[in-house]
């Protein structure tokens, strides 16, 4: 699979006016370093933010543009920024970039960090200015070694050019930026677990409230944003709210563009920057090229392993949070996976639930015990040794581990694909239930003393 933002030549031509995230990409896939980035108008937005905009105006501009988090939750970025304290006496604040991209089937942030590291740095610089944060960390998935190498080089380039460090652009504003590689835990994608890990603690989610904006890293106000989210900030500052909103398709409630992709046995697996509101069918047929010869589309997930399965008839849904919500699941990261006709859904779900069970932090009982239980049942069904009632037990676990039932969102995301798979492909689960004659016999009638 290639990391690309190119679509079919007759459908897409990248430009600054239509592709704010990817228009600077090189055709050879190499990283864009400082000189080239500045030649392509890089850091112009930062200079504008420092010279012409008050800090609160930057926050309001991002809020007015309707930018939402691109990590999967979709919380309004400007609203999140507005939660940071206004008290000027609090002079220690932190900005964290969540680059712990461990959602299966998701690699969009990797492309940005490997090929456009200065875009992320510029987005963090502007954000730090708006939030009055004096130090930032890019919390990076440990396996992303190339991204770490490129980010560290870009940080050094920016610092040498006076774009990081002390008295940036002669403004009197200081901002230090560090790349921190994690040890590889899926749960670190949850912002408070990420904070704990950065502090050297076990990566367990924290109780909220207090929220990180009040009590975050080392007890100080902290804002955590996703890589792609921060990479949208320079274009919003440079070109304005109205332009940014105009990028989305009619009917979309989400503004701007989004990195979207398709993997699986499609003809052209990849990654593209597309406007919010494009239909999943366009993404699947026009960009991913449909299924390879000899395969048909059985099901698809719209945005990572933690989103529910959909059917081919759902491809006409628009790719934005509300559009995917109308057909019964979440958009998530926006990188879809095609499931072909050769895949057994029980085996696929067993593999997924094993991953989620392994990655549980183990803090709360429903997640710690419920996910391994689902794996045990799925393994039995996969072998044809499932017992009558196992499917109902699995559906019960989907309910017990759903939203609001666990300490964080890990378990609800883990069981969402399980519930949808049973909904649409129940017969495949039923096929793994052993005949009654082979089932475990019921307990013998208890002996009553004195009867």
TrEMBL record:
<keyword id="KW-0560">Oxidoreductase</keyword>
<dbReference type="InterPro" id="IPR037207">
    <property type="entry name" value="Nuop51_4Fe4S-bd_sf"/>
</dbReference>
<comment type="function">
    <text>NDH-1 shuttles electrons from NADH, via FMN and iron-sulfur (Fe-S) centers, to quinones in the respiratory chain.</text>
</comment>
<keyword id="KW-0520">NAD</keyword>
<keyword id="KW-0408">Iron</keyword>
<dbReference type="InterPro" id="IPR019575">
    <property type="entry name" value="Nuop51_4Fe4S-bd"/>
</dbReference>
<keyword id="KW-0004">4Fe-4S</keyword>
<keyword id="KW-0411">Iron-sulfur</keyword>
<dbReference type="Pfam" id="PF01512">
    <property type="entry name" value="Complex1_51K"/>
</dbReference>
<keyword id="KW-0288">FMN</keyword>
<dbReference type="InterPro" id="IPR001949">
    <property type="entry name" value="NADH-UbQ_OxRdtase_51kDa_CS"/>
</dbReference>
<keyword id="KW-0479">Metal-binding</keyword>
<dbReference type="GO" id="GO:0050136">
    <property type="term" value="F:NADH dehydrogenase (quinone) (non-electrogenic) activity"/>
</dbReference>
<dbReference type="InterPro" id="IPR037225">
    <property type="entry name" value="Nuo51_FMN-bd_sf"/>
</dbReference>
<feature type="domain" description="NADH-ubiquinone oxidoreductase 51kDa subunit iron-sulphur binding">
    <location>
        <begin position="346"/>
        <end position="391"/>
    </location>
</feature>
<keyword id="KW-0874">Quinone</keyword>
<dbReference type="InterPro" id="IPR011538">
    <property type="entry name" value="Nuo51_FMN-bd"/>
</dbReference>
<dbReference type="InterPro" id="IPR011537">
    <property type="entry name" value="NADH-UbQ_OxRdtase_suF"/>
</dbReference>
<comment type="similarity">
    <text>Belongs to the complex I 51 kDa subunit family.</text>
</comment>
<dbReference type="Pfam" id="PF10589">
    <property type="entry name" value="NADH_4Fe-4S"/>
</dbReference>
<protein>
    <recommendedName>
        <fullName>NADH-quinone oxidoreductase subunit F</fullName>
        <ecNumber>7.1.1.-</ecNumber>
    </recommendedName>
</protein>
<keyword id="KW-0285">Flavoprotein</keyword>
<keyword id="KW-1278">Translocase</keyword>
């Amino acid at each position: 699979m290639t990391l690309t933002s190119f679509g079919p030549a007759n459908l897409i031509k990248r430009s600054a006016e239509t592709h704010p995230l990817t228009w600077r990409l090189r055709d050879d896939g190499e990283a864009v370093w400082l000189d080239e980035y500045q030649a392509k108008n890089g850091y112009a937005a930062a200079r504008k933010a420092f010279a012409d905009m008050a800090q609160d105006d930057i926050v309001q501009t991002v809020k007015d543009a309707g930018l939402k988090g691109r990590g999967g939750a979709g919380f309004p970025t400007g609203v999140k920024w507005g939660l940071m304290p206004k008290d000027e006496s609090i002079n220690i604040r932190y900005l964290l970039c969540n680059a712990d991209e461990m959602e299966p089937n998701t690699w969009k942030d990797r492309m940005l960090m490997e090929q456009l590291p200065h875009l992320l740095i510029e987005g963090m610089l502007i954000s730090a200015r708006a939030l009055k944060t004096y130090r930032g960390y890019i919390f990076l998935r440990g396996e992303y070694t190339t991204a770490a190498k490129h980010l560290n080089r870009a940080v050094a380039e920016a610092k040498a050019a006076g774009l990081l460090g002390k008295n940036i652009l002669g403004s009197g504003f200081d901002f230090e930026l560090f790349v921190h590689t994690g040890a590889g835990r899926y749960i670190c994608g949850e912002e408070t677990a990420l904070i704990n890990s950065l502090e050297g603690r076990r990566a367990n989610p924290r109780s909220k409230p207090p929220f990180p904006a009040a009590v975050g890293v080392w007890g100080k106000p902290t804002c955590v944003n996703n890589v792609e989210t921060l990479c949208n900030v320079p274009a919003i500052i440079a070109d304005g709210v109205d332009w940014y909103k105009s990028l989305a398709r009619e009917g979309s409630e989400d503004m701007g563009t989004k990195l979207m992709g398709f993997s699986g046995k499609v003809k052209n697996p990849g990654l593209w920057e597309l406007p919010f509101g494009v239909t999943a069918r366009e993404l699947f047929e026009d960009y991913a090229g449909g299924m390879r010869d000899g395969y048909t589309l059985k099901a698809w997930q719209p945005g990572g392993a933690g989103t529910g399965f959909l059917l081919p008839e759902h491809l006409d849904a628009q790719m934005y949070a509300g559009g995917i919500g109308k057909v019964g699941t979440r958009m998530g990261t926006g990188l879809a996976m095609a499931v072909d006709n050769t895949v057994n859904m029980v085996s696929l779900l067993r593999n997924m639930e094993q991953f989620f069970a392994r990655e549980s932090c183990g803090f709360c009982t429903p997640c710690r015990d419920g996910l391994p239980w689902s794996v045990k049942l799925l393994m039995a069904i996969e072998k044809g040794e499932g017992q009558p009632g196992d499917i109902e037990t699995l559906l019960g676990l989907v309910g017990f581990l759903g939203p609001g039932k666990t300490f964080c969102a890990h378990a609800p995301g883990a069981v969402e694909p399980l519930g949808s798979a049973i909904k649409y492909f129940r017969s495949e689960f039923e096929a793994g239930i052993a005949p009654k004659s082979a089932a475990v016999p019921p307990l013998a009638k208890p002996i009553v003393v004195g009867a």
